[in-house]
Write a structure and sequence with these properties.
122 residues; mainly alpha
Length: 122
Amino acid sequence: MKRLGLLFLMLVVSVVTLFVTAYYQRDINTLSLNDPQVIQACIIIMVILFIPPILLSFFNHKFWRFLSAIYQSMFFLGFIILVPTGVFSFNAVFISIVSLVGAVISLWSIFSTLPESFFKES
């Protein structure tokens, strides 16, 4: 249940990050709060991307846990790539803060998903 809870928390932080980046839009061609259909499509795509790790969180075999951790590393990389956006844009530092929170939660989820034998020395 811990893995499932962390995945739902990571999904909520991803949606919050989506809204924060839409709020601090930098260009006409970027994500904007003025276009609700695009925001809705992005949220639906995010939920669809979270379905595989949520389903894999119910399995306790070492292979499925390792596969889920690899899949979740994509979310971690997405949050880490988003950090410089707020750093380089001084009025959007909140994007960096939210993405750092998402990166920490995703790292926590990855380490709790990996099987215990992954950390043991042989």
